Automatic annotation (TrEMBL):
This is Inositol-1-monophosphatase. It comes from Mastigocoleus testarum BC008. CDD domains: IMPase_like (cd01637). InterPro entries: Inositol_monophosphatase-like (IPR000760). GO terms for molecular function: metal ion binding.
Amino acid sequence: MSTTPTPRQILETLLPHLRVAAGYARFLQPKIAALPDKDTTDGNFFAAALTDADLAIQNFVEVAMLGSFPNTRFYGEEYQSSPNTGYFRAIDLGEQDDYLVTLDPIDGTKYYMDGHSNYQIILTVLNADDYEAVLAISPAQNIYFYALRGEGAFKGQLDMSLEECSPLTVSSNPEPTILLGTKMGALAPTLKNKYQVIDPNVDYSSSVQVPNLNGMFVGLLSGTVKQSGQFIDGGALAFLAREAGFIVTTLDGSPLPPLHTCKNYCLPGLVIATSKTVHQDLLEATSIVQMRS
């Protein structure tokens, strides 16, 4: 395998391994035994959940990476717990065109542990300035989404090749529902006169599934506001949305900054919307709350 693979080659090579990982995640979900919570200081109980599946899937993908692309940078969410971390050339962003592959082995671990179907396995290919590719698998739903920079976004059944997938576009009639990030609950009162608002801190249920960010891709949401976007998950899904035609900006309506200017593998606040009207409503609500604080 070439030491300088293209983003498409990376997705094509790792997709079969990720299918196996998806099957493992499906098999293990009913049997999962939670490990001790991650050490987290931000109070986000979603980020605190850690399971056997997180570690096992990351280790599996790391083996595939080292076997296929041993000279490519790699950062996995569970890098501190992985025995493979030291074998990669680097775990951070490099110079332009020195790609960094990232992995969130189970995005939505809390959903996963509670038996919900909207968890994901997310793989990204990052350049110094922007995302080059994102692949987001929903194992329990047997579907995946992917996007390549400048080529649009696509959706397919898990057994489909990249070429067999269909274009992913913005729903023409999405539900009038807004998903708030775990630290954006203050926006709810301003938005509730026009939208149904989901605040995970209030509305999350272990027994009744509520949409997460990937609900935007199937028409369950009109928009979302997040205080920040981790490269490995929220930022990755924002890139997918952008390539599919959604409006994606920072909290003040500006374009997202180059990745190399960000710290701690994290983009600033994100606004993602299905239309200009929804986008403006979200920006106005954010502005009102910021003025009050």
